[in-house]
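Repro:
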Amino acid sequence: MKMTRKDFLRASASAAGAALLAGTTGVLTACVAPGAASRPQGRMTLIKGATILSMDPKLGDITDGDVLIDGSRILEVGRNIKAPNADFVDAKGMILMPGMCDGHRHLWESMQVNRPDLTLVTWHMMWSVAMKPEDVYDYAYLGGKMAINAGVTRVIDYCHITHTPEKMEASIRGAIDSGIGGVNCPQIAGTIPFRVGDVVDFKTAWNHYRGPADDWHFKLAEKLRDELFSDSNAPLQFGLAHSQLEGGRTREEVHAEIARAWALEPRMLTGHVSGTNEGKAATYRVIRDLHEAGLLRGNYIVGHGNGLTDEELIILRDAGAGLCSTPRADVRMDTPMAVGRCFKLGVPVAFGVDHLIYNPIDFFEQIRAADIAMWAERGENKEIVQTMTARDFMHIATLGGAKAMGMESRVGSITPGKLADIVLLRTDRLGFPEIDDLAERVFTYAGIQDVDSVWVHGKLQKKNGELVDFDKGLYKKAIESWDVARAAGESIKFIGEDGKILTPEYVRSPSFNPGRPAMKPGP
């Protein structure tokens, strides 16, 4: 039986919050029939009079177009569609586009914090250790709502707050209950053995955090797969994220972990694979080795991949696998983003937000960030971006991203027979032009404030600029619980190589590099 959010929180030690996320409203809004948000699946909805950016290469763009939704699927796309008994949506003057696909997002990292506090150590080895399962549930729930609010309907949720069985389950349940579609991928990783208030040797703690998957992660993943993901038609499906493979692992360990992961039959397997380790080219080449070992499959997607060679990208392409580039995060890395080379080589590629901790939740900003970053980067990316159009970028955000995520037959375009993942954009805002190529208009000018209505899997999740059935007070409560966890996590102290405790200022520094051979001691 499905556990609701209320059931989960009642069973938890304390309650936490949810969020006010919607953008500003405009004058022109979709006219949705009363009760449409709670209509039973199978009831039809007719969206009429929109300018349709279908992203379907056969249908193209359609002016004054209609879309008929029957339950979870798109039944018809065209003009002058008649369905007198359907719920009616007047979309005249608005743009209808496919829901966008995010190939690499950590839903649980949904609380905005100050950037100076951020390192891998602070939020993964301190703050998250102090979080309670019921808080993790809320963060994942909010992360899904934030995606929907921005017009993203499918995500690869790389969930790496799997320190304890309780947190792992809470994050999955929160993602499911948010209503977001895609694949939930809990990370099979090592167990962090320390807790709030402990004083631990840093290298030992780091090795646990970055260590190989342990047995209980596999067993719990299998259990939750069977309990929570038994419906193959549900919006969110079962996947897995593997542990960190680059650095300190033997090939035998890697092969054993990946083989065991595939044995659980995930819809998608993902992982952080950068091609670099501690700022240098990684000695162990994950993609090539998995390919040679027969462990690389089509339902695999790389997160980041900046340091992958062209040869490795071609291996991904030929295997039917994909890559997700996260522009706002990848541009900070030592090597240029891989999205340009993927485009050039024909590798299925998606855009992703990565973590929401300091990246904007507006997905249109992520798309435009890729364009700007490629222009700013020297060398090949600048050459490639000059060959790319606005429609190419929107393709990556929709149908191309869906292909990289293994979902192009189900979502990514407004096509009869596909799932009804649809976004309706207002265009009445000052500065949103009414002329120019349709893809260019959306790529250049659209933003979260323009997202009027969102359907995920045929269900209306946002209308008239507001999330449906959403507690606006939850976000404030969640921020408060996050702040409590941050404060408690600060009580964890790390011992440096000389036996002295590392200073809080040093641990919190953005320049903190755990790979540095010698770390500064405390006073």
